[in-house]
Design a protein that fits this description.
The complex is a heterodimer. Chain A is an alpha+beta fold. Chain A has two helices and ten strands. Chain A is about 25% helix and about 35% strand. In chain A, a hairpin with a 6-residue loop joins strand 2 and strand 3. The longest helix of chain A has about 35 residues. Chain A is elongated. The N and C termini of chain A lie far apart (about 75 Å). The mean pLDDT of chain A is about 85. Chain B is mainly α. Chain B has one domain. Chain B is built from two helices and no strands. The longest helix of chain B has about 40 residues. Chain B starts with a helix and ends with a helix. Classes of the chains: A alpha+beta, B mainly alpha. At the A-B interface, helix 2 of A face helix 1 and helix 2 of B.
Chain lengths: ~160, ~80
């Protein structure tokens, strides 16, 4: 009876242990492959071009609605995407998303001692009105720009530009 | 108990355990790399993503090499 059992199941205890170890290594190598694939996928996603994203153009306002040195809040491209149209003191227009890149508080146009900036009151972060670059405080990266187009007397938003670094 | 075969098996067991611990260390390194890349991407920084992915692939290659070594070790005459 015992001989028959050994013949039917020819795996002794030692061999059983070896199989378990090999299985462990196989499993760990598989898990390692999954982690490598995940990291690779993230790296590729990070390399994908995302400088400029175009959306359906939308009219913001007319030129005469905004005086130099003032700003207007609007939503683009979705109603939940808050943005800010700024007419600088020199009369030029610039558009930025309104969410601070630190903790998403709404930024506001601010003039301090003749110097223009986009200011976040939550943690005193500030951005340049020229290009959205961080000039002060904790924001980790620049404000995305809203690209603008003049159509006669109207100002249209045409896309969102994310600055990579 | 004091046969050469017994000593050979014990030596193999030590090698196995050492390789297992090393593999665990490598796996934790890969998890750390993955989390680091994810955190940096969410913060808008992409500079280290490709080197980290390359390092993770290198770790995978080491794991595959060790798996092959383990298979050879298990198959070798005891």
């Amino acid at each position: 009876m015992k001989d028959q059992l050994k013949k039917d199941f020819p795996v002794d205890w030692e061999d059983d242990h070896f199989v378990t170890r090999r299985e462990f290594f196989k499993f760990m190598t598989l898990a390692s492959g999954v982690m490598a694939a995940g990291t690779g996928a993230l790296a590729l996603a990070g390399q994908a071009p995302r400088h400029m994203r175009s959306f359906e153009p939308a009219m913001i306002c007319k030129v005469e609605d905004l005086k130099p040195g003032s700003s207007l809040a609007f939503s683009y491209p979705r109603p939940s995407d808050l943005c800010l149209l700024v007419r600088k003191k020199d009369g030029e227009f610039a558009g930025f998303t309104r969410r601070c890149t630190h903790l998403s508080c709404p930024v506001e146009y601010d003039i301090q001692e003749e110097e223009e900036r986009l200011y976040c009151p939550c943690h005193h972060g500030a951005f340049s009105v020229e290009n959205g670059a961080v000039t002060q405080g904790p924001p980790p990266h620049p404000l995305p720009r809203v690209t603008l187009e003049m159509r006669g007397e109207e100002i249209w938003a045409t896309g969102v530009e994310v600055v990579k670094h | 108990m004091n046969t050469p075969e017994y000593h050979r098996r014990r030596q193999k067991a030590v090698v196995f355990v050492g390789m297992m611990l090393f593999q665990l260390l490598l796996f934790f390194t890969q998890i750390w790399l993955f989390v680091m890349v994810l955190e940096n991407l969410l913060a808008g920084r992409t500079g280290m993503a490709l080197p980290a992915a390359g390092l993770s692939l290198l770790v995978l290659a080491i794991n595959l090499w060790m798996l092959k070594g383990i298979s050879d070790l298990s198959r070798s005459p005891r």
